[in-house]
Design brief:
The chain has helices spanning 15-26, 31-37, 40-43, 46-56, 70-79, 89-98, 112-128, 131-135, 139-150, 156-165, 167-170, 173-178, 190-194, 207-214, 239-248, 250-263; strands at residues 2-8, 83-85, 101-109, 199-202. The protein has two domains: 2-110 and 188-214, no CATH class; 112-174 and 226-263, no CATH class. Strands 2-1-3-4 form a four-stranded parallel β-sheet, with helices on both faces. The two termini are 33 Å apart. The protein is an alpha/beta fold. It is globular. This is Sulfotransferase family protein. It comes from Pseudoroseicyclus tamaricis.
Length: 264
């Protein structure tokens, strides 16, 4: 099977920035000036990136969009020079195998509390970005957004119930995406699983992930998809929230610590 660099895109970990950089790096010939000529908001658009990725960037960003079309996904993965998506490793591996590709895993990790806070804010953000963006989401997520926007988001006792009820959406998400058995991966198996990654960005330093995906040094990378909505993340720095996350987001805390040790 031929090698395929695969970027596992955990939500709210600078993945949009990396996707845009990958398309820009692989754009060649007439595509390169065309990409540079696009206004910044368009280069920041996930729908446009998904559509231009295969033709302009030689890759398959947002591969999860094609999960409902397995034959098309297999064809695209066979042709791709790289792939990325909001897809857990345990789900991506068999997709790549069907396409005859051997995945070379790459990802970006973020401080666990920052990742949870940013992901929580995202469900406010989708409404602030306009009606068209909001309507792209299924009714379940639009309703979740309404509930979060109506809550007292300065009070940890109001925020924690959302995190607890929707724990598969918010908690231990990085471990769920990167570990071979997701949240069921034994803690003692995490170091070996982490060592299988060819490149791992940490926080705002996504250069190791770019290098592993391209073999090139990263250029200056402008930030994409930054939050624009009003939300005070101080609630995630309260003692009550820290206690909650220490218990219920412990797998991500452990994964983050291991990644920092590995980097050191």
């Amino acid at each position: 099977m031929s090698d395929l660099p695969v970027f596992i895109h955990v939500p709210k970990t600078a993945g949009s920035t990396l996707n845009a950089a990958l398309v820009a790096h692989h754009a060649s010939g007439p595509f390169a000036p065309a990409w540079r000529a696009l206004p910044a908001p368009l280069r920041d658009n996930s729908v446009l990136l998904r559509r231009l990725g295969p033709s302009m960037g030689g890759g398959l960003p947002h591969a999860g969009h094609y999960e409902g079309e397995p034959e098309k996904l297999t064809r695209l993965l066979r042709e791709a020079r790289w792939a990325s998506g909001h897809i857990q490793r345990r789900r991506f591996a068999p997709m790549a195998a069907v396409a005859g590709r051997s995945p070379r895993w790459v990802s970006v990790l973020r401080d666990p509390t920052e990742q949870v806070a940013s992901h929580y804010q995202w469900w406010i953000e989708i409404h602030e970005r306009g009606w068209l963006r909001f309507r792209r989401y299924p009714p379940f997520f639009r309703d979740l957004s309404r509930q979060i926007r109506a809550a007292d988001n300065s009070d940890p006792e109001a925020v924690i119930p959302f995190l607890a009820l929707h724990h598969t959406l918010f908690l231990n998400l990085q471990a769920d995406y990167l570990m071979p058995e997701g949240r069921e991966t034994p803690v003692e198996a995490m170091p070996e699983a982490l060592a299988t990654f060819a490149g791992l960005g940490l926080g705002s330093d996504i250069a190791p992930a770019f290098r592993a995906m391209t073999g090139a040094e990263a250029p200056p990378l402008p930030r994409h998809n930054a939050s624009r909505s009003r939300f005070d993340r101080a609630v995630f720095r309260t003692e009550r929230m820290r206690e909650f996350l220490a218990e219920h987001n412990a797998l991500d805390e452990r994964l983050w610590a291991l990644a920092q040790e590995r980097r050191g």
